[in-house]
Amino acid sequence: METPEEQSQKPAVEEGSEKKLSKKELAKLERQRKRQEAAAANSAASGVSEISIEDPLAGNYGDVPFNDLQSKEISGKKWVEIKNLNDGLKGQVVLIRGRAQTIRAVGKKMAFVVVRERGFTVQCVLVVAEGLVSSEMVKFVTSLSKESIVDVAGVVSVPEQPIKGATQQVEVQVRKLYCVNRATPVLPINLEDAARSESEIEKALEEGEHLVRVNQDTRLNFRVLDLRTPANQGIFRIQSQVGNVFRQFLLSEGFNEIHTPKLIAGSSEGGAAIFRLDYKGTPACLAQSPQLHKQMAICGDLGRVFEIGPVFRAEDSFTHRHLCEFTGLDVEMEIKEHYSEVMDVVDHLFVKMFDYLNEHCVPELEAINRQYPFEKLKYLRKTLKLTFEEGVQMLKEAGVEIDPLGDLNTESERRLGQLVLEKYGTEFYILHRYPLAVRPFYTMPCHDDPKYSNSFDVFIRGEEIISGAQRVHSADFLTERAQVCGIDVKTISTYIDSFRYGAPPHGGFGVGLERVVMLFCALNNIRKTSLFPRDPQRIAP
Length: 541
Description:
It is a single chain. By secondary structure, the chain is α+β, with helices and mostly antiparallel strands. The chain has helices at about 5-10, 25-45, 135-140, 190-195, 200-205, 215-220, 225, 230-250, 290-300, 340-360, 360-370, 390-395, 410-425, 475-485, 495, 515-520; strands at about 60-65, 95-105, 110-115, 120-125, 150-155, 170-180, 255, 265, 275-280, 280-285, 305-310, 325-335, 385, 430, 455-460, 465-470, 505-510. The protein is elongated.
């Protein structure tokens, strides 16, 4: 059968015969020619060869009509998730949906399609067989563009040899295949390129082969595609579990989840790193943390609270670990005697979290490790606690001089992390009793030395991930501290007034979700663990 394109290339009439046709007939032929050209153009644009109407199996493949995808009916079909395909289903007919990750023709009578669903893949096989698979069906399948969404129905089989190109060690012998939605034929980035490790690229260069290296900006520009790589699937599934463990652990310890406003009248942390805006004619800003309101919740007798929510910092920090917007994991709680009660919660929470990730996220960690190799985090069953002065002394003995009443810079943090690992065998530890001058205005000073504070930072692999402290719960002293730190007390008057009605001693901490995942997996940039990162130079996609 001729395609519309082949038909359109023939003359409308035999040469020299136009004189015998009427104007009406000529006009009819011209309309027919235009329709054929339009059909050929549509076929070429979609990349689909015309399906022969003579194929008795034509109903077993093709593009699903858009009308059928508009929630037209509930058919009762049962889809099987690709991750659940195993040899226990041998001989059974299954229906799966996923992306056509790779499509490979073997002659005109055989083709392989690797179908992917949320990081899991299965090899689907088409072999021309009478009454089952036609050559036209193979032709249709091999015309599909990679990353198109397909529905595949077929019989599960178990090959004799291990399958290297898919996660599932079974095959699906295809009987029906329908395209639900076509991806554009040429993708802006190739997923195979985006999933390569740096070591693979370097090894290829040594052997004289040049492989494409997808840089970070390109990945982020086409983040929707980048997220489909196995490593990124692992990263964001682990991130989900970090939030899950955080929530479940705190709920089990009697904490209440709260949701605080992100539009506030004044600075929550002090400093100039604030996104300012107009709020119906009144100056306002985006919250740098839920700090003020989670303390107010304690004053409201909620006892123990936590929040998972967005945090905004207008810092011009062009580093591997800073973002202008990130997800904060915040905790606040009454304390009975000592701020060590807060540090104990940190200890138990994160040991529980690390244990859970190592035990329940093995496939995800392996996927990340293949592209971004890392060593498993070293941590103790009871988290190490050192005072700031002890940390300074360790650095001094190693030849690193720092201001004993200043903060640690990035290099000092990393060096101290190395020293702690060498001496104590852990990459996760707490450093407490920081100098008061480097802490926020609401931090409680030490009882025995006002130059220091009842505060702490927590480190993973030599980088800070948590800041916490006992808070000032006296309204008068809080006012004094705010003024010393240059904060306009009028903008936080409702916060300070909360402590005038009787406030219990309390403390808490905050941690960045993205930074926890970055450091647990030893990734080199926080943008890898932010779904759609916001930094000083990026506000899209």
